Amino acid sequence: MNAPTNDPNELFKELAAQTQTVMDRLAHPDHLASVDKLTQAWTELATTNWQDPSQWLENLTEFQRQQMSLWQQMMGLPSETTDRRFKGDEWNEKPVYDFIKQSYLLVSDLMNQWADAAPVDDKDKEKLQFYTQAYIDAMSPTNFAATNPEVLKEAMESGGQSLLNGWKNLLGDVEKGRITMTDEAAFQVGENLAITPGQVVFKNALFELIQYTPTTPEVNAKPMLIVPPCINKFYILDLGKGNSFIEYAVGQGNTVFVVSWINPDASYAETSWSDYVDQGVIEATKIVRDISGSKKLNAVSWCVGGTLLACALSVMQSRRDKGVDSATFLTTLLDFSDPGQLGVFLEPEEVDRREAMFRKEGFFSGKSLALGFNMLRSNDLIWSYVVNNYLKGKTPPPFDILYWNSDPTNLPAEMYAFYIREFYLENKLKDGALEVCGKPVDLAKVKVPCYFLSAIEDHIAPWKTTFVGTELLGGPATFVLGGSGHIAGVINPPHKNKRNYWSDGELGQGADHWLDTAQSHPGSWWTHWDAWVKAQGNDLVPAPEAPGSDTYPPLYAAPGEYVKVRI
Predict the structure, then answer these.
(1) Are residues 457 and 324 in the same domain?
(2) 189 in a domain, yes or no?
């Protein structure tokens, strides 16, 4: 690659070319089908609508009226918009950029109206709307140097330095294979992330088990085991002092253990879902009980970790293992009939194509998985960084959650294929047709008390679908609905006094009825959950003087080794 030039015109050309290069390299091949799907969907829609063109004509007439109005006001006062992409004053200072902005918004609105009015079933309409919005987002004038006045102004005022910086940022991201979302130099796992004191007391091929140092003289006689999702790293629950769920749980008088999953490579290709359940979750419950000397424990899980825990509880029940006394499920799907926006990636033929690819590699890439999640919020999690990092040449500010979001894990090919097909495509867990560890999974036979926490704006595990879990498990259930989304709805320390949660609705008559009868409370659900855990039994014993036991001596300090492996 040639050395960068100081000629702004050449820099613009080079930057445009390299932006395309990085997007091509960052996009996993299985996402390239999005363009074909958009074309196919709109071709089918056009054919259908021309048979009855009234809706098209109505929308087109309104578009033409608005376009004419825009021309008439072009020489008048600039228009206003709440779209954050156009918040800069530069979009209103010159009529030409205001016109570009408004024209784009008009066309975007027209395309969305046509997609919304499409005479297709709900499933196809959701896909059409998703791919239409993805195209609209990508084509925003903010994403191109020549049509973004903020970029042009930055380049002029810096004498082209902003473009040079952007070029360097771009090359760095090409090397990493992902978009930089935060100042990564500001964080280091074990230094300012995942810093709650503890020791790794067990390690096998799938996980490390961390035991955290107690901070109270007495603790609940029943230890607590946290099972995080294996598709992400556990330290989302331990972001830092004052922002850590693990720190909070320890501080409430619990002996807390956490599973830290391996970041697998191709050698794990045949590792199965049953392996994660048996050699992972169930093995961890045995070790925690052995170390603590308690016959029972309280289990906490999040997202896919909750699905693993539910399977483990059923297998344990069939083995007459009653070692789990209560279970907490944070934003966990047990019914997969409505997978939210992830459903756009779950067409059977699309799953077949992807599976053929990742089975060749031996694992499903965490980078590809992260990109898929980011595509669901492409303006916030892709294009805003393209503009900030590459066009404006800036480094994004430090943000712990975005650092974690950029630190994904791979999944074994066999395990991931099973997860997608058996759960998302065939919904066997809900239907009682799933077999794990050679045992049929029957959630109705799981009788332990369960606490479900969902988030009202969750686009990954829609709360009304997670609510069904209260009707599938056989024990007494408590359901709580938090504010915000999949991450912020869970990570909400009480001392920040943010958001709200709903509780005490009537179960057994569906999600809508529950919400209609629930009570809203300001602040964090963490305190409500802590009270629930204590209500399951809070006999106090002296806090352990040292981690581990003679059988399971401490190996090394938390957060361990597995969590530090980056891909």
Answers:
(1) yes
(2) no
**Spatial CA neighbour of 365 closest among 262, 265, 222, 228:** 265
Are residues 457 and 483 in contact, defined by beta-carbon separation less than 8 angstroms?
Answer: yes
Same domain, 239 and 207: yes
Name the residues annotated as catalytic.
303
Q: How far apart are CA 383 and CA 89, in angstroms?
A: 20
The token pair at 536 is: 């399951």
Within 149-233, residue ranges assigned H as helices are 149-157, 161-176
H or E segment to which residue 90 belongs = helix 90-93
Q: Which two tokens stand for residue 96?
A: 């030409």
Do 219 and 254 meet the contact criterion of CB atoms below 8 Å apart?
yes
Whether 350 is in a domain gets the answer no
Q: Which of 404, 437, 457 is the last residue of a domain?
A: 404
Residue 295 near residue 263 (C-beta atoms within 8 A): no
> CATH number of the domain that 251 lies in?
3.40.50.1820
Within 10 A of 126 (CB to CB), how many other CB atoms are there?
16
Give the alpha-carbon dihedral of 420, 422, 426, 432, to 10 degrees: -150
What residue numbers bound the domain in which 114 lies? Answer: 8-177+379-404
Q: Is the peptide bond preceding residue 559 cis, with omega within 30 degrees of 0? A: yes
Among the listed residues 234, 434, 195, the one whose alpha carbon sits nearest the alpha carbon of residue 330: 234
Question: Is 365 among the domain residues?
Answer: no
Q: Among all chains, which residue has been given the structure tokens 């799953």?
A: 351
Same domain? For 394 and 440 the reply is no
Note the pLDDT of residue 56: 45
Encoded tokens for 114: 């046509």
Count how many Cα atoms sit within 13 Å of the Cα of residue 319 in the half-sphere of its side chain: 16
> Which uninterrupted H or E stretch holds 329?
strand 324-330
CA distances from 341 to 131, 258, 351, 414, 504 (A): 11, 29, 15, 24, 28
Same domain, 426 and 294: yes
The label of the residue with tokens 């107690």 reads 214
Q: Which residue has the tokens 């975007």?
A: 108
Torsion, CA 194, CA 386, CA 265, CA 300, rounded to 10: 40
In the chain, the number of structural domains is: 2
Same domain, yes or no: 157 and 104: yes
CA distance 462 to 331: 8
Residues of the chain under the 50 pLDDT cut: 1-4, 26-32, 34-35, 46, 49-53, 56-57, 60, 63-64, 68, 70-72, 74-77
So what's the pLDDT on residue 65? Answer: 52
192: CB partners within 8 A, 6+ apart: 186, 240
Q: Which residue type occupies 211?
A: Q
215 lies in the same domain as 172:
no
Q: What is the pLDDT of residue 60?
A: 47
Q: Is residue 270 part of a domain?
A: yes
- Do 224 and 289 lie in one domain? The reply is yes
DSSP string, 173-210: HHHHTS---S-GGG--BTTTBS-S-EEEEEE-SSEEEE
- 40 and 84 inside one domain: yes
